[in-house]
């Protein structure tokens, strides 16, 4: 089959790789219908040294089950399914606690003999624990929306959930990428952005790209702050009566974004980070200790949220697939990377 | 009156200062019956440069109200009271939310014309918002226990509460100082340390001073780990089935203690820090992001917890005053500092 390989920074190619096969009784093989490129794919795309053993890229996909091992019970050939961005056994104590990303048998796509999501097909370990059946057909117009359940929508939702967003509260979302925009959707779903029980109910989106922040407004942001750094912090504080917001969703992954988060969070409030950290230490020292700032979040256990979020997509109340603004055929995946890396595209669908 | 002044590192003296007087209608003047020395007093004791304007030291005291301003309604002359380690108005939105340490009109003792707690008396701003009446006499044997409501017990409790300690859970407490031992009391109060609903219910105390860890066992610790660093982490993991504990109470304030906390916390778990940070950045980068580790805690809003904790002292179910192992008269306060700094005493009462 054809799949996407990253050889080194800037050098992404589609090549022939071995066809996936059921290897374990708990495996399934899925023919991929839609994949996409993630903001986190851009970090290796920008920085990976040359390797003679390029990994298969991609960790988000919707597809049709082609074959299942004898122990697979919850999906069968012909089912349309979505895969979260890590596979997981669904039975260990972490999975039972909803932390599928710490699964004792789980792991990421594209390494250790497991395929990536930017290809024609994938072997799915622990198919029962990993895959979720979609109650629509392969030709459904909702497929891009349902594809966001793989990662980006669940990641935004993880930010909002772990931050403890509640009805009527004000929230600041830092970053207008696809995760930030998904965090706006999530904050709105949890009742932020609407005054309630004395709360101001603002969703402040911090970002500089008008097309993206415009989409953020449609998703539920009540305010957009384009300034960054101290100026941006001052603007958010002015919007929120001087004190900042009790919840801040950090959707970038850079230290500057964390500093900004600490600046806009209200005393006693919570910063949830879901941007993959490009830093090794968190700038929360004595001043933030005195202000009782909490840092939470982390990599999203997407599998834990799919069942909960899917109905909102199926009934049309949210349209997270609007973060996809371009589609490329698999053979042109390199162009998709270029578009995202050059910020010409927000998020790119890859169609095998 | 006589009060404790810190002139520079290692140079603490008792000197005459102006007698406190009611200055604002919301003030009270309190004659101090018992004060004490805090671990956090040792940081300036170790490091403060020479100053011509030495500050009054001490922020924990029990005393008798001598005079009140005309707007003070909740305490009256003759009342025995405890003061939390910051004063607060009790009415602003932070105080109403239980975050008295962020009070819009509050502040620390010993600066800005407010007296310290290691002296004969203190002017108390916002007496209604700050002081809590004690239902015992000045000669009660419970006074040392009630004095811990000023800071150390509430600080340990803040760690346990913000970490979200629940019945049956396992908790690691890092640090066998007075705060760490108070955190053990607090974890036990919240139901840790006893198997419940499938939880192992361990309270693991990490510390190296046998007299202190012995007291920790009496307070409720089920296990003591004397090793530090990687060896200590391995020991805690071995005690807890390999995964560590879901709650970790960091009662030291050094970066090494945070690294240790990250090592012993279970994936998806929470580290609460209540040791005053002697660092500017927190070592929680990509690995801890992947493990969904939360960092919470901060300076304890002691005032918020006094009403809740006092009954446990009055009925004798907890004896937090056992952290005091020495008493010095006010004139010998310098010896009290030396004893604590040299680790000859755990925590020292100062009796004016």
TrEMBL record, chains A, B:
Leader peptide range in chain numbering: none
Enoyl reductase (ER) domain boundaries: 10-350
Keyword Oxidoreductase attributed: yes
Keywords: Metal-binding, Oxidoreductase, Zinc
Cofactor(s) essential for the protein: Zn(2+)
Entry coiled-coil feature ranges: none
Keyword Flavoprotein listed: no
GO molecular function, one term: zinc ion binding
Family annotation (PANTHER family): DEHYDROGENASE, ZINC-CONTAINING, PUTATIVE (AFU_ORTHOLOGUE AFUA_2G02810)-RELATED, ZINC-TYPE ALCOHOL DEHYDROGENASE-LIKE
Protein family membership: Belongs to the zinc-containing alcohol dehydrogenase family.
Protein's name according to its UniProt entry: Enoyl reductase (ER) domain-containing protein
